[in-house]
Specification:
233 residues; mainly alpha; globular
Length: 233
C-alpha cells in the first residue's frame, strides 16, 4: 500500500516504518500502532494521516483474508463438516468477499476511526487494488499457516487431515487477539484461542505448551525484524 503514499517510499523505509510501529501493538488500545505509523511517516515527509489510513485498510483486508483462509481450511476438519453445512460456509465466504469492495472498506475504516478516535486522510483505492492486497495477504496467511503446521508437528504427531485444518488456527488466534482492544499484542487472547482449538487435536497440556511456545516463536521473529529495521536508514 506504500504506492498510495505521497511521495511513495522505498521498500526498505516502508519496512522500517511498519516494523517499528508494529511494536506499539503491545501497548493496550490498538491506537498506538497507527500513531506510530503516523509519527515515523511524518519523519520521512509522508502524510502521517494518509499512512495511518492505509495501515488501517491493511488491518481490515488482512482480517478479511485471514477469516476466509480460516473458514476454508477449518472446514476440512471432519468434525466441523459434521456440524456445519456447506451452505453456511459459502454464505460466510461470500459475505467476507463482498466486504472487500471499496464502499464497505470505507465504512469499516470509518468505524475503526471512531473506535481509535483518530482522524485519517482518505485514500481512494480501486477494487482492483483491494483485490491485489487481498491476494497478497492471503499468501501471507498461507505461509504462516504452513509454518504453524510444521511448528505444531515438532511437538505432536498429527495426521494429514489435521495438518490442513490446523493451518486455520494461527489466523483465527491472530484475529481474535487483534479484535480484543484491551489485550496488548493479543497477549493471552491469542494463546487462549490456540490452546482451545488445539485441544480438538491433542491433550490440553500439549496444546498449552504449543500456544506459549508459538508466542515466543512469533515474538522472536518480530525482534529479528526490528533489529533489521533499526539498521535501515
Amino acid at each position: 500500500m506504500i504506492e498510495t503514499w505521497a511521495p511513495p517510499l522505498p521498500f526498505l523505509k516502508a519496512f522500517r516504518i511498519y516494523t517499528l510501529s508494529n511494536l506499539a501493538r503491545y501497548i493496550p488500545g490498538k491506537i498506538w500502532q497507527l500513531l506510530g505509523v503516523a509519527y515515523l511517516a511524518d519523519k520521512e515527509n509522508v502524510s502521517g494521516m494518509k499512512a495511518s489510513y492505509t495501515t488501517a485498510i491493511s488491518f481490515i483486508v488482512s482480517i478479511i483474508s485471514g477469516g476466509i483462509f480460516s473458514i476454508i481450511f477449518l472446514y476440512q476438519n471432519p468434525l466441523v463438516r459434521k456440524y456445519v453445512d456447506v451452505k453456511s460456509i459459502i454464505f460466510l465466504l461470500v459475505l467476507l468477499l463482498i466486504l472487500i469492495h471499496p464502499y464497505f472498506i470505507v465504512k469499516l475504516t470509518n468505524i475503526m476511526r471512531k473506535i481509535v478516535k483518530r482522524d485519517f486522510e482518505i485514500v481512494t483505492l480501486r477494487l482492483f487494488e483491494l483485490i491485489k492486497f487481498f491476494f497478497l495477504f492471503s499468501v501471507f496467511w498461507i505461509i504462516y499457516g504452513i509454518a504453524f503446521i510444521f511448528f505444531v508437528k515438532s511437538f505432536y504427531s498429527i495426521d494429514l487431515i489435521s495438518d490442513i485444518s490446523i493451518a486455520a488456527i494461527y489466523p483465527l488466534s491472530f484475529i481474535a487477539g487483534y479484535l480484543v482492544l484491551v489485550a496488548p499484542g493479543g497477549l493471552g487472547v491469542r494463546e487462549g484461542m490456540v490452546t482451545y482449538l488445539l485441544t480438538f487435536y491433542m491433550p490440553l497440556s500439549v496444546a498449552g505448551i504449543i500456544a506459549v511456545s508459538s508466542r515466543i516463536w512469533f515474538t522472536s521473529a518480530e525482534l529479528v525484524s526490528v533489529a533489521v529495521a533499526l539498521r535501515v536508514r
